[in-house]
Input
Amino acid sequence: MNSFDNIDREYAYDGELGAVWSPEATRFAVWSPEAESAELRLYHDDSEPEPFRTEEMHSENGVWKAEVSGDLSGVYYTYAFTRNGNTAETIDIYARSAGVNGRRGMVLDLRTTDPEGWENDTARPGFFLRREREIHAAREIRGVLREGGQRIRRDYRS
Output
């Protein structure tokens, strides 16, 4: 058994990761079992050189967590992990939104991204199935199909 199997067995986690926003508070959780410490860094924008706030995170079985009160929608964030005396700042790999070039994650109330009328949108059952049938029919008309992984041509002129 390799070390990844051991880590997975010892630190398995099935909770929600990333920044989970609410108007009252945002919960941050990131899986990093090899880190010795972790710090949450909050920024007003994507290019601000220094965070306006930092929070030490606490580890629960390899998952580093922090909670910050208040509405953080629109705030950028990163994590700083320390291991073997070296600290590295990184984006949250579980971020639901990111700034320019993915340098920092962004806390976001995803409802603010809905286009006008989104709440009235309804699913269109069968839309994709119909489109798939249309594509298949077009290929048949051209006489190009695949059977058993082999490309075949059929002549429909007779």
The chain has a mean pLDDT of 83. The longest strand covers residues 76-83. The radius of gyration is 24 Å. The CA atoms of residues 18 and 95 lie 5 Å apart.
